[in-house]
Amino acid sequence: MLKFIKIIPFFLVSFLYAQEEIVQSVYFEFDKFSLDDKQANEVIEFIRKTDSTRIESIQIFGYTDDIGKDAYNFKLSTNRATTIQNKLIENGIKNKIIVTIEGKGRILIDDDIVENLPEKRSKNRRVDVVLNLKPLPKIEIPGFYNMVQKNHIVGDHIYLDNIHFEKGSSKLTTKSKNELDKVALLVHRYKNLQFEIQGHVCCTPPYQKEAIDKDTKKRQLSTNRAQSVYKYLLFRKVPKSRMTFKGYGNTVPLGKGSEYDRRVELVITKI
After folding, report:
1. Contacts of 64 (CB under 8 A, 6+ apart)
2. Please, what is the average pLDDT of the chain?
3. How far does Cα 260 stand from its chain's mean position?
4. Which helix (H) or strand (E) holds 194?
5. Is 20 exposed, middle or buried (CB count within 10 Å of its CB: 0-12, 13-18, 19+)?
6. Are 83 and 26 spatial neighbours (Cβ–Cβ below 8 Å)?
7. How many CB atoms lie within 10 A of CB 39?
8. What are the C-alpha distances in Å from 249 to residues 130, 264, 265?
9. Whose CB among 42, 75, 129, 180 lies 3.0–4.6 Å from 24's, allowing a Cys bridge?
10. Of all residues in the chain, what percent carry a pLDDT higher than 70?
């Protein structure tokens, strides 16, 4: 059994992202460290599907369940990690980018409170292959900016650097509020500008144009994120008459990859 988990720690609305990790977990049978062909092919495919120019390093961590002695489990978890390492190298993955091969030993669980203990233990018998990705490059597109400027024209897009949300949430972080303080100062300076605050998301199923906000449990995440920015700028005394907000869900992709489609932007509507 093999599972793919993509981890993006924060909602980043900019063309420059912090380092990203993606993780592939390979599950082993009890007391085994052999890898069947199906699992081997899937873990190799996982890496090959990732943009090779962005892979900075690979880390491999082995684990066992909580049955058995520590020394034995450390050895077993190390053997599992080494099995994955060898398989990657056999398939052309350069050893120099594999920076960690580590057996972590057993994962302890409270067997008196855990529901479905056998399933929990089976998920602890695994190796995690972690790809550390380089930040995405900035995209240079005419009419797209990363901060409010003096001489905008109608239709200009301003991508808000460092506006972060927790995954699935519309609540602004402290760092995001600090960044919006800078935006508010510039908006007050250039009093002629009017704009729409636009929220965008990505990676929803094809039949869903919008994502669920975990705080409200409603499918309106892009709208709620845009509204959060709107409310904060109101708090910073930006007049209502100068701004509106709207969520666009996943309907306005940039065509540059899903990572660029998670964003909040200001679009100039009047000068």
Report:
1. 73, 76, 77, 80, 105, 106, 107, 124, 125
2. 83
3. 11
4. strand 194-200
5. buried
6. no
7. 19
8. 29, 11, 13
9. 129
10. 86
Q: 133 forms bridges with which residues in the sheet?
A: 20, 55
Query: How many CB atoms lie under 10 A from the CB of residue 207?
Result: 5
| CA-based radius of gyration for the chain | 23
State residue 102's pLDDT score.
94
Tokens describing residue 233: 């700028």
In a 10 Å sphere around its CB, with 0-12 CB exposed, 13-18 middle and 19+ buried, how is residue 77 labelled?
buried
What span, in angstroms and rounded, lies between the C-alpha atoms of 153 and 243? Answer: 16
pLDDT score for 114: 64
Q: Which residue has the tokens 């920076």?
A: 99
- Give tens-digit pLDDT for 185-237: 999 999 999 999 998 887 777 677 888 888 888 888 989 999 999 999 999 99
Measured CA angle at 46 (ends 49, 26), to 5 deg: 175
Q: What angle do CA 25, 31, 32 make, to 5 degrees?
A: 60
pTM: 0.50
